Amino acid sequence: MSTAAAPTARTLADPDTPFAVVDVHRARRNIARLRARADRLGVALRPHVKTAKSLDAAALLHDGGPGPVTVSTLAEAEAFADAGHRDITYAVGIEPHKLPRVVALSRRGVTLRVLLDSTEQAAFVTAAAREAGVALPALIEIDCDGHRGGLRPDAPGLAGIARVLHDAGCLDGVLTHAGESYFCHTPEERREAARNERDAAVAAAQRLRAAGLPVPTVSVGSTPTAHAADDLTGVTELRAGNYVFFDLVMAGLGVCDLDDLALSVVVTVIGHRPEYGWIVTDGGWMAMSRDRGTAAQPQDQGYGLVTDLSGTLIPDLVMTAASQEHGTLTARNGAALPELPIGTRLRLLPNHACATAAQHHGYHVIDGTRGTAAPAPAVEAYWPRVTGW
Known about the structure:
2 domains; Lyase, Ornithine Decarboxylase, Chain A, domain 1; elongated; six-stranded antiparallel beta barrel; TIM Barrel; 11 helices; alpha/beta
């Protein structure tokens, strides 16, 4: 674990609150779980680094060395290339203004795949590749459910786009993402989403191959479907990112348990409003984000569940309201508010790990297996985050 540029902190009692914490033991366990599943399914794993956005966290993914990753920003791609990663997929639709940065990475020997779903995008990618004299591999996005982007597998224009890319040496394959799987509340619903995701990508690949076009990459994945898939025949790689940290949305779907959540935010009690049944902390939506992803689930977890500093859940205590720098904790199910004096430090488990992590510059890293005899868990490292676009 890196300690470069680490703030001085021996334990979770030291830094000013709020700040983000990662339990490295839980993260390692989460990583090992999906790696084993990908191995059983016979596909390569291309983790998405958009959740942690951390080179130190990514070092856990490939046994300390560089490996294939998925990114959501060119800033991530550049930072990971600087650290030695040479096999990167940029899984957001490409636009012309960003192509000079893509070309620059390609000239450094980085295989950076771009994503597109239109003839217009294919034209400017291939023009840039020819002008620069570099390979710019492209994946065609396939819409398997959510309609955010991509072409349906039977779209009339699919082969035409692929042909434009192929003629310029840019066709790399197809990619899809089952975004609707985040609303699948039963194991069978998640398995069906995984099957649909696979079938859409494979059908698109088969259409292109039938047209005489090569399709080396057939890429699928989301955290819910990656953990539900039971047959990935025809798929070459699996993508997921949230699984490294997990969060309350994933726990609410049944993809993980609460004790798998590796990310939390430390806050401090700064006030009491007993007439309203409130405990007030210094962690508002600037620390937790405004994400309310569990509001659509059977159990609404507010802005997050509450643990003590050692990570033990405080029953029925929930962060139910937030302003910019204030968080409100209340009791549910008729429970009494616990006695938490001003100055008490707590940890909050977030709804959406990606959104909460994005509020912080880095993570104070602990190992939850090392016991809690001390007043506060020891900080073993500090992992900076990649920021910006």
